[in-house]
User: Fold this.
Amino acid sequence: MAGQTLYDKLWDSHLVESRQDGTALLYIDRHIIHEVTSPQAFEGLRLSGRKPWRTDTTVATPDHNVPTNAEERKGGVATIIDDTSRIQVQTLDDNCDEFGIKEFHVNEMGQGVVHVIGPELGVTLPGTTVVCGDSHTATHGAFGCLAHGIGTSEVEHVLATQCLVTSKMKNMLVRVDGQLGPGVTAKDVILAIIGKIGTAGGNGYAIEFGGSTIEALSIEGRMTICNMAIEAGARVGLVGVDQKTIDYIRGSRFAPTGAMWDRAEAYWQTLRTDSDAVFDAVVELDAAAIDPFVSWGTSPEMVAPVNSVVPRPEDSGNPVKQKGYQRALDYMGLQGGMNITDIMIDKVFIGSCTNSRIEDLRAAAAVARGRKKAESVKQVLVVPGSQMVKAQAESEGLDRIFIEAGMEWREPGCSMCLAMNSDVLGRGEHCASTSNRNFEGRQGAGGRTHLMSPAMAVAAAVTGHITDVRKLA
Amino acid sequence: MKAFVKHQGLVAPIDLANVDTDMIIPKQFLKAINRSGFGPYLFDEMRYLDQGWYGKPLSERTLNPDFALNRDRYRNASVLLARENFGCGSSREHAPWALDDYGFRVIIAPSYADIFYNNCFKNGLLPIVLDKTAVDQLFVDVEAEEGYALAVDLEAQVITRPNGDTIAFEIDGFRKHCLLEGLDEIGLTLKNAELIRQFETAHSRTYPWLYGAIK
Ligand code: SF4
Assistant:
């Protein structure tokens, strides 16, 4: 019998029941909740008189809708200006109190973007199933766990039953081998992968990322990669467990300790795909050939190396794609054939569950140090992913570096990644953004997003246009 | 969940392919904490000429007279006739909530996005798939005849036209059963509570560190 993939192992160890219609009942170990997709799930529990099946599996935090400026945050929930946002955050607090769920409140140590706090608190552990009412839950797969996003009815279902009705995906391996060049990061790798396989390339698959490049990445880098698996169409992204995974978790708040730790660690060490396992699909990339990548269009597959040109619709190869390219160029206000580095930038956003961890902020600060935001750039937001990241960054003096460079150091939250709060782009503004989606209107109606790494975003901030960070003097 | 057995209602057409969940209910309305009350914001950006937000009174809104649902003849429609890939985009369940709250009970289209299709059933809304030719014909008929209504019988899996002609449709047996009975999936899963408990006992012996850690 052929060996098993990591995904197969995780699936099997959580299978409560396999049904004839192809669906299955899967047990859920960890559930993370935020203010936007949970109120109706709690309301459903109340209406049906149900209680959570377990509460020691679940943590909650407000992130999507919270303001990020210190002034508006200083009074906690009470000082949130927008009525509907305040009520939504208050509702999360009330629901967590009523149902006995552990919450990290708006200004509490531990609060932050769901996909940043899960791992740093040790809520996310190798070998677990992790769900959250947010499609970027794939992030947690960097720890060798089975993690994906769910809808609100499913949030209620998991709360009430600790299970999910779901069906098994196919296995895809994305192998990246070789050494990344200087200035090339995990974000560039995942943008290159999506550029290669397309936004539907991973449909129906759980993608495992492997190869020497992935092994050499930090845990933060692996999270950046798994985070955007969904942008390649895959609900699940995964990386096998190694010593780095285990070292990252050690000492985190909800991780096991003592003899229990040793037992857990022994199990975690087995969480890798067997050498003789067979994948349904394999995609290979050469790390040495990856340059810093930037998105030019309105889909995460519309990416190009920084030193290339915006594609011409007529070169796209087929009529459907050509139409899509033209629509994207019109929306973005760009011309096919122009240099990527001639794209002017109005605002910069450094943050989101893709790139707001300490390593991302260090990389951004390294470029910002001693430089100034370009005059033409209206605003640079630096939004740490969590209170813990914020505290760590401040202890290293990174906040000072950003502030001296003319950038704004904010409170943790999703911020301009989806622009539900007041951090938004104006119509027609171009934004160098470290987030994960460049859809029309994602960062504000008429806003134009260019996805890139934190170092590249700072390079754009200090020059006023998209710039190859490797060429900054 | 709400049961669905039979329904007869006025048909309104939305003649646009790839209607995404952002068009059905834009992101500013995700700030709400209820499942109901989204009806006034259904198709907000197409339906009104002004910018909408959650709680904005209807008296302050300017209707877009060109949008189908705003035409007198389609007022009080409860059957939505749509094009390919209806409901694509984000997984927000606010989309079926808004359709339901507006008063739609049935959607007819050649195809739907997966998650949206699933979410409809969880909310007692019946999404019917018909082949493209049948949908094209319905668009012609609806336009031609004011007051065009269809009768939908889920048990028999047929749609009856005003002239008495019928169109059969397919639906997966499990979903049909749940919808007819108004069963909720949580209730169904809880029928397996014993099985889940047994699983949990074994699971907690093998992975004891996953139990009792978060408090
Ligand atoms: S940072 Fe953006 S992508 Fe991540 S959870 Fe928040 S809104 Fe979603």
About this structure: Residues A 63-64, 113-115, 134, 136, 352-353, 414, 417-418, 435-436 surround iron/sulfur cluster (CB under 6 Å). The two ends of chain B are 32 Å apart (CA to CA). The domain at 6-183 of chain B is CATH 3.20.19.10 (Aconitase; domain 4). The interface with chain A takes residues 22, 27-28, 30-35, 53-55, 90-93, 97, 115, 118-119, 122-123, 172, 174, 184-186, 189-190, 192-193, 195-196, 199-200, 203, 207-215 of chain B (CB under 8 Å).
